[in-house]
Design brief:
The chain has one domain (8-320): Hydantoin permease, CATH 1.10.4160. It has 401 residues and is mainly alpha-helical. The protein is 78% helix and 0% strand. The chain crosses the membrane at residues 39-61, 82-104, 116-136, 148-165, 171-194, 215-236, 248-268, 288-306, 312-333, 345-362, 374-393. It is a multi-pass membrane protein. Pfam families: Transp_cyt_pur. It is found in: Membrane.
Length: 401
């Protein structure tokens, strides 16, 4: 898409809309065994950690005027960028399916008089068609429509928040959840956008302001969605926020929330999937690629039971947390800007080590989660490798003298 520059207001509402989703509410419900106080702390702390990475990764694209996967070339070379583009497309197809099936099941619970199978099929198709229309409209042309949709969503979510918390009495919660695992689930959502944020910041008219506003709006919106999910599970006695709205006589509002939230968020997924595929095959038509991703995600949503996606979130962190740590170290500390290299072997091996470390920290289950220690270790290793390389060059030069 040859889109014009995006304003700070457009970016703010774009990312606020991305944060308002059924998936984020459902993830918030998983934190309920911690109780409201500890759950809220995990939500805020996790989003702060993820938001910092979100901002700085987005700033690379904003300053360099390159897409998310284009910026990966700074650290991993052309082949490395293709590798992460493939992984990003796979996660985005998965996210597209998760969002569509979550929305379809929520809408199916509002509709009556039809079988669950019919409801799922019907609503998956409806949501898929609406996303296709969003793609055809294009990122820039959607500004006004997206702004209206996001503001309407925010107003409806305020009503939902009031309904969730008006009781104020805690219901019996079953299940277990440690603070470290809850923290990582809160980090996971902003982390899932790391391989996409620069697809939008590259079009910013004011790079720093746009990236900062996008980060703040996503942080606020995502925290709010998590808190609604947490509150629904603890205080409303049911994690099904759609049924809460329906019970309050707001069935139509529930349908609007689910449809708009699903379409506005999933559009970003399929758009970025198209950007990643173009990084692999530059000659393809961007909108047609996005439509193909949407159709594939819709088909998967119809035929695959993918409602439980906690492990999916952790897998995303395993892949993209060490990638982001290496990219940030190279760009902001070491000043690497080489996009012509075919592949950076050292950084690739460092990413493999970071992936393994992330999985190990998940098993150890520290109070700091996995992201913080992995980022710290990967940055440290990266700087040590750079220092050793510089020492070897200096030592070799002395020997030649």
């Amino acid at each position: 898409m040859n889109e014009n520059k995006l304003s700070i207001l457009s970016g703010s509402l774009l990312w606020l809309g991305a944060a308002i989703s059924i998936a984020e509410i459902l993830t918030g419900t998983l934190l309920a065994p911690l109780g409201f106080g500890w759950g809220l702390l995990a939500i805020i702390a996790g989003h702060l950690i993820g938001g910092i990475l979100f901002y700085f990764v987005g700033l690379i694209g904003a300053k360099s005027r390159v897409s998310a996967m284009g910026s990966v070339r700074f650290s991993f070379g052309r082949y490395g960028s293709v590798f992460f583009s493939v992984l990003n497309v796979l996660q985005l197809v998965g996210w597209t399916a998760v969002m569509i099936i979550s929305g379809a099941k929520a809408l199916g619970s509002v509709a009556e008089g039809h079988s669950a199978i019919f409801n799922n099929l019907f609503w998956c198709v409806v949501i898929g068609v609406l996303i296709v229309l969003w793609i055809l409209a294009g990122l820039k042309n959607l500004n006004k429509l997206n702004n209206i949709a996001v503001l309407a969503l925010f107003a409806l979510c305020l009503v939902l928040g009031f309904l969730v918390f008006k009781g104020g009495s805690s219901a019996g919660i079953t299940g277990t959840m440690t603070f470290g695992m809850a923290l990582e689930l809160a980090v996971a959502m902003p982390i899932s956008w790391l391989p996409m944020i620069s697809d939008y910041t590259q079009n910013a008219d004011k790079p720093v302001g746009f990236t900062a506003a996008s980060t703040v709006c996503y942080f606020a919106g995502s925290c709010f969605m998590y808190v609604i999910g947490l509150g629904a599970a603890i205080f409303a006695g049911s994690p099904d926020v759609v049924m809460i709205l329906k019970g309050a006589g707001l069935g139509a509002a529930a349908i609007i929330i689910v449809i708009l939230a699903t379409v506005t968020t999933t559009f970003l997924d399929v758009y970025s999937a198209g950007q990643s595929i173009l990084n692999i095959c530059p000659g393809l038509n961007e909108k047609l690629v996005g439509i193909a991703i949407c159709i594939l995600g819709t088909v998967i949503a119809i035929f695959t039971p993918i409602e439980r996606y906690q492990d999916f979130l952790y897998l995303i962190g395993s892949v993209f947390v060490p990638m982001a740590a290496i990219l940030l170290t190279d760009y902001f500390i070491l000043g690497k800007r080489d996009t012509n290299k075919k592949i950076d072997i050292l950084n690739t091996l460092l990413w493999v080590a970071g992936f393994v470390l992330y999985r190990l920290f998940l098993k150890i289950d520290t109070v700091m989660g996995s992201t913080v220690p992995v980022v710290a270790l990967v940055v440290l290793f990266s700087l040590c490798i750079k220092a050793v390389g510089a020492y070897r060059i200096k030592f070799k030069a002395k020997r030649q003298l």
